[in-house]
Amino acid sequence: MNEAIAEEMRRDERVFILGEDVAEAGTPFKVTSGLVEEFGTQRVLDTPISEPGFMGMAVGAAMTGMRPIVDLMFGDFIYLIMDQLANQAAKQHYMSGGALTVPLVVRTNMGATRRSAAQHSQSLQALVAHIPGLKVAIPSTPYEVKGLMKAAIRDNNPVIIFEDKLSYQMKGEVPEEEYIIPLGQASVVSQGTDISLIATSSMVQVCQAAAVALARQGISAEVISVRTIAPLDDATLVNSVKKTGRAIVVDQGHQSLGVTSEIVARLNEQAFYYLDAPLTRIGAMDVPIPFSPALEDLTVPTVEGVTVKAIQLVTGVL
């Protein structure tokens, strides 16, 4: 993420970043460390603790020719910026008859199991994906983070990119040369023939581990990283399910009325006659995220849960 922001700020002087503790502190997760030393406080702006205020500033800057990156310290704070995001940024292009664009990025985080309790552990990607005019990226690896962020910064629409807090410890290959991952393009992480495991963010790693466990049982699982949920790459997901005949959709957001529901609905509409088993979804429990580690771990999808459900679907023993 740091490389993506720095490279785009060098490439385009209109790009700047603002948010709480983005300069000297480098954010609580140190994602923006070093940027202020290179670009200065005119382009790396520490803001007051007023999310609606600096989000409004970013919308205005974007409408008048700049390309701001809004650093929202925790994804839970999306509730505080919803008017500026949903009523202003998402609708200006439509309401102006195409005369105005709002090329801004909101980068924030998501995810439980970090012991941050109910107000700092939510996964709210479905909330903003529901709003026409917004694009939503949800990377699962360092490679995807950089490629999707660069695409988001160059896009002429408002884009929200969610990073799983636990993934900041992840290591992965990132090319030295320039690359961009187009928004709306899913990735087949590993090929399989018996069942499709369709996942977002850190749930990709959960599904990869489940695929290894399933292989020991003689079950071949295909793992897909959705990458962006708005727009959603229907074709890649549908083609996978047509091949395997079964699917589990896994997302860390609350299961009811969430990302898993939408993906299952689209698969049902476009691949129903290829199915050999009911489409299944696994999301977080519909409860506030507990602070207790023992309880928190029970609320989110697990490798064991995905593995057991996949075996049930493939064997037909539900």
Description:
One of its GO terms (molecular function) is oxidoreductase activity. This is 2-oxoisovalerate dehydrogenase subunit beta. This protein has 318 residues and is α/β, with parallel strands linked by helices. The chain has two domains: 2-169, Rossmann fold (3-Layer(aba) Sandwich), CATH 3.40.50; 187-315, Rossmann fold (3-Layer(aba) Sandwich). The chain contains twelve helices and twelve strands. The protein has helices spanning 2-11, 35-39, 51-63, 82-89, 92-95, 125-129, 142-154, 203-216, 234-244, 259-271, 293-299, 303-315, and strands spanning 15-19, 44-46, 67-71, 105-110, 135-137, 159-164, 187-190, 195-199, 221-225, 228-230, 247-254, 280-284. It has a seven-stranded mixed sheet with strand order 2-1-3-4-6-5-10, sandwiched between helices. Strands 7-9-8-11-12 form a five-stranded mixed sheet, with helices on both faces. Helix 1 packs parallel to helix 7 (142-154), helix 3 packs parallel to helix 4 (82-89) and helix 8 crosses helix 12. The termini are far apart. The model has no long low-confidence stretch (mean pLDDT 96).
Topology:
Blueprint: H1 2-11, E1 15-19, H2 35-39, E2 44-46, H3 51-63, E3 67-71, H4 82-89, H5 92-95, E4 105-110, H6 125-129, E5 135-137, H7 142-154, E6 159-164, E7 187-190, E8 195-199, H8 203-216, E9 221-225, E10 228-230, H9 234-244, E11 247-254, H10 259-271, E12 280-284, H11 293-299, H12 303-315
Parallel strand pairs: 1-2, 1-3, 3-4, 4-6, 5-6, 8-9, 8-11, 11-12
Antiparallel strand pairs: 5-10, 7-9
Domain Transketolase-like pyrimidine-binding: 1-170
GO molecular function, one term: oxidoreductase activity
Keywords: Oxidoreductase, Thiamine pyrophosphate
